Amino acid sequence: MLAIVLSACLANQPTVCKDYKIPINEGIDASHCMSEAPPYFAQWNEEHPGWQIKRWRCASTSENDI
């Protein structure tokens, strides 16, 4: 299963950053993850005011680096 990994920083303290993992629908492969990701950004932004997404990627949910 894949997840979207967002790297976001506080808007008022851009040196304070954190990675967030958002699981996506099962059955989506890596190539579709890229096109399916944008709606997740909008929802995440609503739930995390004050944070700005700096970069993102698709990764396996089994990655333990986050």
Descriptors:
three-stranded antiparallel beta sheet, alpha+beta, single chain, 3 strands, 66 residues, elongated
Structure report:
- The protein is built from two helices and three strands.
- With 66 residues, the chain is an alpha+beta fold.
- It has one domain.
- Strands 2-1-3 form a three-stranded antiparallel sheet.
- The longest helix is centred in the middle third of the chain and has 10 residues, at 38-47.
- It is elongated, with a radius of gyration of 12 Å.
- The two termini are 16 Å apart.
The tally of strands reads 3
Give the DSSP E fraction (strand runs of 2 or more residues).
Answer: 35-45%
Shape: elongated
Q: Write out the strand line-up for the largest beta sheet, numbering strands in chain order.
A: 2-1-3
Order of helices and strands: EEHHE
Low-confidence stretches: none
Helical run tally: 2
* Coarse structural class: alpha+beta
Integer average pLDDT: 88
Distance between the termini: 16 Å
Instruction: Kindly give the count of domains.
Output: 1
Give the fraction of residues assigned to helices.
25-40%
Main beta sheet: strand number and arrangement? 3 strands, antiparallel
- Radius of gyration, taken over Cα atoms and rounded to an integer in Å: 12 Å
